[in-house]
Each structure stands twice: as C-alpha cells, then as structure tokens.
Write a structure and sequence with these properties.
alpha/beta; Aldehyde Oxidoreductase, domain 3; 6-stranded mixed beta sheet; 4-stranded antiparallel beta sheet; 17 helices; 46% helix; binds uracil
Length: 442
C-alpha cells in the first residue's frame, strides 16, 4: 500500500484534477478497510458528484472497488453464463421471469440481487415472500445450483465488493447517489466481480427511475458498457421505459403471483415483452441466434410450460414451496383489506411511477431505510397503461393491513395519475441498446 494523504485525493478532486490511479486505489481500499474516516470519503464523493469523473477515473474507481473483496469465477458452470441487472424501477419483475426463462433456453443465469430501497422494489424481498425460500446461498451453493438447474437468484455475499456496500450507504446519507460515474462504478463493480460470459443491463428511464430522461439513461448505459469493455467483458445495456409501472403488481407476494402468471403464459403485456426482449438479447449475444427466432423461442418457452417448470425447480432448490406455481395464493400471504378503485373518464396521459412506488412502500411493501422490515402481503395492483381510456373499469386494487392505510393509498394513486382528453403517445418499451455483439459496430 502506498503512503497516502487522503486529503490530497479530496483536494485534487475538488480542484478538478485527474486523480492518480494509485492514490485513488489506496483511498478506496483504505475506506473499505475502515482506515479512512467517513467525513473524508463523504467530501470525496461530493467533489466527484459536482466535478464528475473521467472514463479513466471511473475505470480506476471500479477496479479498486472490485479489488476490495473476492470474485466469483463460475468455472464449474458449463453452459453460457449471463447476469442481468436493473437500475431499479416500479413493478419491475423482469428478473423473476428472465432467470427461469433464460435457463429453460439452455443458458445459465447467476443473479446476485438486492433489496428494495425507497420507491423501488427488490427481487430478494419478492422471492422471500415464498415461504421457506432462502436467498443467502454461499458462492459454492450458487454455482452448484446454476450448473444443476440453470438459474439461481441470491443475495450478494458480504465479501463481494465490500467497498460498494460502504460507499453506497455513505452516498445514500450524503445526497450523492445520482451521479452517472458513481452509479456506473457501483453497478459494474458488482457485475464485473462475477465472471459471466454476458452482462445484461436494464437501464430504466422515466418517472419511476433514477434517470428521469432517456438521454441521461443512455449516458449511464454508455458508461457501464465502456467499463465492461475495459475489463474485456461483453455487456449489452437496454435503455427501457419506466415512465409507468412495467407490470401491474407493486409489492412482493403480488409480484411473485404476477411472475407465475407470466411464466405460465397466462398474461400478456409490457413485463412479458421486456422479459422476452432480454432473453432474446442473451441468445443473440451468447449463441449468435437470429434475433427474431430468439424472440420466438422465448415466447414458446413461456407458452409451453418450460419456463415455469424451471421456476418451480429454482424455488424448490432454494428451500421454497414449489406449489406456488400451481396455486400462488394457497402459499403466499394475502393482505386482509382489499380496496378497488375505478378511474375517472378520460385517457391516462402520465403516471407518477415513483409516487405509486412510494404509496406501496407506505403500505409496508418497501423500506425507507436499509434494514427496515417489509410486509410481503401488502401492495398495489395498478392496471392501466399510458394512452388507455379509463371509464368505469377498475384501475387499481390496494392490498392493505387496515382501512386507514388503504384510504391513504387510494389518495396517493389518484394523485399519481394524470387524466386528459387526448390519449397522447404511449412511450416505447425500449429506447435503444448499447454495447456490441459480435459483428456489430455500434
Ligand atoms: N444501483 C446500484 O447498484 N448502485 C447505484 O449507485 C445505483 C443503483
């Protein structure tokens, strides 16, 4: 370790100088070990937030974060491996569908997921609403399960990228989360620490995402893909719409029930379409499949029962009750109070997806700070999409613990909808893809 004056690193970033790679590395590793105090790291993060970071500095930061812990090689897995990550959204159940779907197509999905924070949901919380299911798999268990079944979804072990755990908590506490280089380094350090053949990124744009515009999301997608390339890894990043909930379920047990309906081919819509698009992207990148044919294969796997069969095997392997695929509500906890809402006449013009996520969190489905407990049974089902005509039909169902909480959620749902006379233009599902597959130049 070099002899470092951490104040010099803070001062260099404050003054807009490009950081020395060795000093930046020593700063990050020193912070992860507890040798550099929070106040210096907080000052550094604020300077980086305000002055930005060059591609080279972002790459150095990412490398140092990876070096702060162990990595996972997946050398015992013989199928092409893929990891998929979303930057966070509302009713974003893609992982629950994508992992078993891709496994049923012959790929191996090793997915380290996170918990929900603020208005966004977390895959681990959703899966843990299945009684008995464990997400604390050891690296060896994860690898064995991926080899045997083709998919595993688990929490990140504490020794994988510990610098991100420490820095993320500090960013959360110092209003320095929303910085493209800091988010790119945080996301990519975790993806690069797991040695998969392909990294798929779902970079969300819109009212329910960190990045509110497709342009900002494209900048983040580009930064993440460049980091993968610098590490000799293949990444594809889709910039996808989060200007409204992707599916209809905003909660935990509700999301599992929705994923089961999709995996059984019983439900159509944007969540199914995006899960299919990611599965097709993985087949194109890893098997050089024709894109249209890859999409058709993914659709078939949802409709012929192969995807849901993988889901049942994954649930069982992780200690959960696999009957959840036959009759979800025989297994999942249901909320005692259900309120149905109907819309007012007009078209749904816009949705405050973050507002809906916060309404579900206020019911108990999410947490406002790390470590808060969540209630798996509560949440919101929100049915219409932008451009739909509303009338006497049900627009939402609130699943709550008591009447008072349900009434408050009703109010928040109404506030989150903009209703007008003109249907306007529904947003696309995918704004664009970043990163190269073989034979492509862009
Ligand atoms: N998700 C992450 O993993 N890190 C960030 O900084 C933001 C979203």
């Amino acid at each position: 370790m070099i002899d470092l004056d951490p104040r010099a690193v803070v001062a260099a970033k404050r003054d807009g100088q490009e950081l020395d790679p060795k000093e930046l590395r020593a700063f990050v590793l020193g912070y992860a070990k507890g040798e550099i105090p929070d106040y210096l790291a907080a000052a550094f993060l604020m300077a980086a937030y305000i002055n930005g970071m060059s591609d080279r500095e972002t790459a150095d930061l990412t490398r140092a974060m990876i070096e702060s812990g162990s990595t996972l090689s997946l050398s015992g897995v013989h199928s092409p491996t893929v990891d998929k990550h979303s930057t966070g959204g509302v009713s974003d159940g893609v992982t629950l569908v994508f992992a078993p779907l891709a496994a049923s197509l012959g790929l191996a999905v090793a997915k380290l997921s996170g918990r929900g924070l603020g208005h966004t949901g977390g895959t681990l919380d959703k899966l843990e609403s299945i009684p008995g299911l464990r997400t604390d798999l050891s690296p060896e268990e994860l690898e064995r399960q991926v080899e045997a079944i083709g998919c595993a979804v688990a929490g990140q072990s504490k020794d994988l990228v510990p610098a991100d755990g420490a820095l993320y908590a500090l960013r959360d506490a110092t209003a320095t989360v929303a910085s493209i280089p800091l988010i790119a380094a945080s996301v990519m350090s975790k993806k690069l620490a797991v040695e998969t053949d392909l990294i798929l990124l779902d970079v969300k744009a819109g009212s329910g995402a960190f990045m509110k515009t497709p342009g900002e999301a494209a900048d983040l997608a580009g930064a993440c893909v460049r980091l993968a390339e610098l590490h000799g890894r293949v990444a594809r990043a889709g910039v996808t719409d989060m200007s409204q909930p992707l599916g209809s379920a905003i909660g935990n047990a509700l999301d599992v029930a929705e994923a089961v309906r999709l995996l059984k081919g019983e439900e159509r819509g944007r969540l199914r379409d995006l899960s299919v698009a990611f599965a097709a992207e993985a087949l194109v990148a890893l098997e050089h499949s024709d894109r249209q044919e890859a999409g058709r294969r993914a659709e078939r796997a949802l409709d012929d029962g192969s995807a849901v069969e993988r889901f049942a095997r994954m649930i069982e392997a992780q200690g959960g009750d696999p009957r959840v695929v036959d009759d979800p509500w025989a297994v999942l906890a249901a909320a005692p109070v259900k309120h149905s809402l109907v819309g007012s006449p007009g078209y749904l013009v816009a949705v405050d997806a973050e507002g809906l996520g916060r309404a579900a969190a206020a019911l108990g489905a999410g947490r406002m700070k790390k470590g808060d407990p969540i209630d798996p049974a509560v949440g919101i089902e929100f049915f219409p999409k932008i451009g739909d005509q509303l009338g006497a039909d049900e627009v939402a169902v609130v699943h709550a613990r008591d009447e008072e909480a349900a009434a408050q959620a009703d109010r928040r749902i109404r506030e989150a909808m903009t209703i007008g006379d003109d249907p306007g233009e529904p947003p696309p599902l995918v704004y664009g893809w970043h990163g190269r597959t073989e034979g492509e130049t862009g």
